[in-house]
Amino acid sequence: MLPHKLQHKLQQRTEDNSLRELTEPSGLIDFSSNDYLGFSSDSVTSTALSTSFAKAISKKTQDILHKNGLSSNGATGSRLLTGNHKLYALAESAIASFHESEAALIFNSGYDANIGFFQSVPQRGDLIIYDEYIHASIRDGIQMSLARGYKFKHNDVAHLDTTISRLREMHHLNDTATNAEIYVVTESVFSMDGDTPDLKTIIEICKKHRVHLIVDEAHAVGVMGESGEGVVQSLGLQGDVFARVVTFGKALGAHGAAILGSEELKGYLVNFARSLIYTTALPPHSVATIMAGYEQLVASAEGAKQSAAIQNQVESKAKQPAAIKKLQTLINHFNTQLRTQNLTSHFIPSTSAIHCAVIQDVEKVKALSQELEKQGFNVKPILSPTVPKGQERLRICLHAFNTEEEIERLLSIIKEHI
Questions:
Q1: Partners of 131 in the beta sheet?
Q2: 113-144: per-residue pLDDT in tens?
Q3: First to last CA, the chain
Q4: Which residues pair with 393 in a beta bridge?
Q5: Is 13 exposed, middle or buried (0-12, 13-18, 19+ CB in 10 A)?
Q6: Distance, CA of 370 to CA of 310 (rounded, Å)
């Protein structure tokens, strides 16, 4: 029998109409998944573009395994015991090179990477200042940390600046003799809003206050930048960021994540990040798929560059991988349609693949999601506690395999019912 307190919590969710349930994909037009480039798509709803990417990555994965003589199904242990097979070193070297970082360390997921970092890096007496809309995995990591956490208003650089100054004074950290450190953390693309902070100004603030910046790039990798390198690198700011978190279960179509930073940071995490030390490592196939995803990005980019040279084109867009170029075209079309259909005021401004219509009512947002499902679209409602009460929304994810016609139909239905 489930304890009474737990029954009460479930009953409360039911009464609030916010009870979560597990569902399976149903063959609807996908405007919900994080498979932004279609690298994992090979289904009846996929286009030829995404199916060809998925097949190419699958073949590359098998080639990598065969080339390195790996055929085991499991990693057999943690990376510090028996699970650190040879693909890890190859993959981490390639990832670090792609992202112009000194080192990379692979974790089993973005969740593991974030709790591993924040549980182990900030020490007792240190401070962590985080955007109020930061991902749950970072919040959980902060709760596990010995450091104290404080939030600043979402994407409010002025409030970040004053918060750092206030906390320095409050905790007597202005004395240069103190060993206390301050860590600031934000996302380059926020998962529930799709918006992007002013990273250049945030870095200026961090430099002024001599604090360390961590940027979670989970929803930017594969989407933002000329070759899908993410926001930080596309702005040339990688040398000013203490650590970046990149994940592979979204645009890369694989699984896992990596923390990018210095070799010293990597060595520290290997010794103290519990989510790395005390879990079974990713199996060879998973790491090979990560490598294949990056190879697909690089190969597409190189192919585009060669094509541009042949055609004597010099625009940067001509050098983009085909999937990223298609996705960016659809993002622009989506925003154009918001203006055309007078829906701009209902959506959070975004130039990423994530677009959210704030409905502010549980019943209404669930009803609209159900109506979209009836008409063939998979668009999920986002409810409290994932977002604050009164901020309920439809979360629309765009993909390289969607079409302009699908976007127009989707927004027409939303306009009729919003």
A1: 152
A2: 999 999 999 999 999 999 999 999 999 999 99
A3: 42
A4: 358, 382
A5: middle
A6: 49
**Burial (CB count <10 Å: 0-12, 13-18, 19+), residue 131:** buried
What's the CATH code of the domain at 402?
3.90.1150.10
What are the residues whose beta carbons fall under 8 Å from the beta carbon of 268, sequence distance 6 or more?
A: 120, 121
Distance of CA 401 to the CA centre of its chain: 19
Q: Is residue 304 part of a domain?
A: no
How far is it, in rounded angstroms, from Cα 413 to Cα 163? 43
| pLDDT tens by residue, 53-78 | 888 899 999 999 999 999 888 999 99
DSSP H or E segment with residue 378: strand 377-378
Same domain? 218 vs 353: no
Q: Is the same domain home to 105 and 30?
A: no
Do 332 and 186 belong to one domain? no
Cβ pair 22, 28 in contact under 8 A: no
Phi, psi (5° rounding) for residue 232? -55, -50
Assess whether 279 and 391 both reside in one domain: no
Sheet architecture: strand order including 354-358: 354-358, 393-397, 380-382
